[in-house]
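Hi team, as promised in this morning's meeting, here are the two structures we talked about. I've kept the exact order from the run log so nobody has to guess. The first one is mostly here for context; it's the second one we should focus on when we meet again. Sequence first, then the predicted structure tokens.
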Amino acid sequence: CKVQVLEGGGEILDSEKPHFTRKQIKDHWRLGCQCKVKGDLKIKVPESVMGVKEWECEVISNKNVSSFIKEFKVALPPGEHMDFVPGSYAQIKIPAYDCIDYDKDFDKDLIGEEYIGAWKKFNILSLKAHNPEPTVRAYSMANYPDEGDIITLTVRIATTPFLPRPQVGFQNVPTGIASSYIFSLKPGDKVMMSGPYGDFHPNFTSGKEMIWIGGGAGMAPLRAQIMHMTKTLHTTDRELHFFYGARALGEAFFLEDFWELEKEFPNFHFHLSLDRKDPVADAQGVKYYEGFAVNCIRDTYLKDHEAPEDCEYYLCGPPMLIKTVTDYLDSLGVDPESIMYDNFG
């Protein structure tokens, strides 16, 4: 609910300040939910908001790219186009539904033989989802503009949490409303999408070294930015590094994109980290760092970097990843204004 209040609204509250950089506070950014309206306000509406459109899109692909993450791809209606900056997000309307039965309503061929074993192992196909009223969810887009009039999302299934060990089974907590709906969709289905939204965008003109750090489904906006900087803009005068962390090789995806970029662009470097030693990766000869992404960037790159404070950092992933990385960068003296991130739960 961030908004730029140019006149009115009073002074920014202490509870708002942690959400903004010093420059943003100076530029009159506020949290709309904390700004009391007692008179006329003058606000600045981003131009991007005026370009938001809604479409009925057609699902063209919905395959798993890891055990529990789908690459969900839709096509805009013929003749329609979305102007967006890589790193933006889209919204999808989730209709009310009585019941989505994972076993009956999820296409197991779309999950894939490679991944269905994990679903059976944890008895996830026994779950059901219910949604009594329509809602909307936001997901970062993994596609970049030159890929055409499509929207690509990476969506992790939000299952019911497991009971604490040694108990077996699931807690009495609802499954994810949106992810269950998206996982049930098949090519040819229609969905309501809107966009673009957001301001998690690269700085195209600073000339600084760019470092992306992500994990899990946080891959989406980082892929969009990196592919645009390389494939579209053909950036060769800036050092580009991407650090991506996953639990295992089978949980990492879009890897071929970045391996190809390394061959094509000498200034682009991809750093894969896996939580622990991975026999599959070892057998395939895949190069990786054993440990978490923040340790990878520390041990293999920034600890010997001459000026980490002169780089730009783009982060996307679970809250713990964002916190550990930002804490580490802060210890190096990196200005918060040089750290951009897209945080999700």
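And here is the second protein, the one for discussion:
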Amino acid sequence: ALKDSVHLQKVLKQVADSLETIRNIALENGLTPLPTASNFLTIDCGKDGAFASALMNALIHQGIFVRMPGVAPLNRCIRITAGLPGELEILAETLPKALEEVRKTF
């Protein structure tokens, strides 16, 4: 697949478009996306590791695949991997609800 330059460029564009969508979803929800050179976007949740962990768990509970760095100060962030348009629509619907739920306890 790496030797197929047409396919490679198509996949790279899909990943870039996906990351841009995730970036916009984060910004729309008051979160801070960090620059990336990978297939995932790190998002600063703006609070401590406990808040980020609670948000991660709320998203996972809703079927969103999310990870979190375990070492401070990055533990205040979550990581969301590039996805398909339908998956990103689910993220756009789920993230505000998860944030609302988590913000009630923080």
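Starting points for discussion:
The first strand starts at residue 32 and ends at 33.
The mean pLDDT is 96.
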